[in-house]
Design brief:
50 residues; 3-stranded antiparallel beta sheet; elongated; 0% helix
Length: 50
Amino acid sequence: MAMSSCILAMRTSFQDHLPDGNGPAEIVLIDTEREFAVEVVAETRVWNPQ
């Protein structure tokens, strides 16, 4: 996987409320050269949506 073909993103299981500190977020790589395949590279509970 070439890093120039990847998008770094954060994925959550919700989008209808702000995080409360208990819900995890996944850090994922999206490979644009492999039909946008998603690979989870980490999980965090400390994050700030922008």
